[in-house]
Design brief:
Layout (H helix, E strand, L loop, with lengths): L1 E4 L6 H10 L4 E4 L2 H6 L2 E4 L5 H10 L2 H10 L4 E4 L1 H4 L4 E2 L13 E5 L10 E6 L1 E2 L14 E6 L1 E5 L5 E6 L3 E8 L2 E4 L7 H12 L3
Parallel strand pairs: 1-2, 1-3, 3-4, 4-13, 5-6
Antiparallel strand pairs: 6-10, 7-9, 8-11, 11-12, 12-13
């Protein structure tokens, strides 16, 4: 069973639907016991960094997320769910993130012809051997919606990058913790393959 962390995030339903289309049993919940028992856990997310961290703390989920990560359960952050795994974000100065991975979330710089938020399909430069991208061709397109991007402190955790006026760390993985800035649940066949790779992790 895959636990989907329910903290009132906007893309929970579409993540649940995508997993169900892959034949997965899911539980959308904020119950610590259910999440700690799940085979895998997903932290979805759409919205503002500060509000999201506030809700995770309000529902007592911050500690649960740390416990899930520490016990080795495969864990996937999506979009804002990726950003929350890091230390801080320029979107919400003074708000501490989950701090599971080292890095900062920065605003996409303004540039000629660049619309912010960045909404649309971008190709990925995939790091060879990245487990989430097994069997996925280089330069595959995935769907993004974001105004802030990850600059990881440790290049070794970057599983895929993209360009949008600046080099964006689009996916990371370290041990059992994985995350995507893009939305696999809205990225067609490629996105479903990425979710399937996550489901199939040992």
């Amino acid at each position: 069973m895959i636990g989907i962390i329910d903290y009132d995030a906007g893309n929970i339903k579409s993540v649940e639907k995508a997993l169900q289309s892959l034949g997965q049993e899911t539980a959308v919940t904020r119950d610590p016991e259910t999440l700690l028992k799940a085979d895998k856990v997903i932290l979805p997310g759409v919205g503002a960094f500060g509000d999201a961290m506030g809700r995770l703390r309000q529902y007592g989920l911050e500690e649960v997320i740390h416990q899930i990560a520490e016990k080795g359960t495969p864990f996937l952050g999506i979009c804002l769910g990726l950003q929350l795994l890091f230390d801080s974000s320029e979107e919400s100065p003074g708000v501490k993130g989950l701090g599971l991975l080292p890095g900062k979330i920065l605003r996409i710089p303004d540039g000629e012809g660049l619309k912010i938020p960045h909404m649309g399909w971008n190709s990925l430069e995939i790091t060879p051997g990245a487990r989430l991208f097994r069997g996925i061709p280089q330069d595959s397109y995935v769907y993004f919606v974001h105004s802030y991007y990850l600059k990881a402190e440790d290049p070794a955790i970057v599983a895929a990058s993209t360009q949008y006026g600046v080099s964006i760390h689009a996916s990371v993985e370290r041990d059992n913790v994985f995350a995507c800035q893009f939305h696999p649940e809205k990225s067609g066949e490629i996105g479903l393959r990425i979710l399937k790779n996550f489901i199939e992790l040992a």
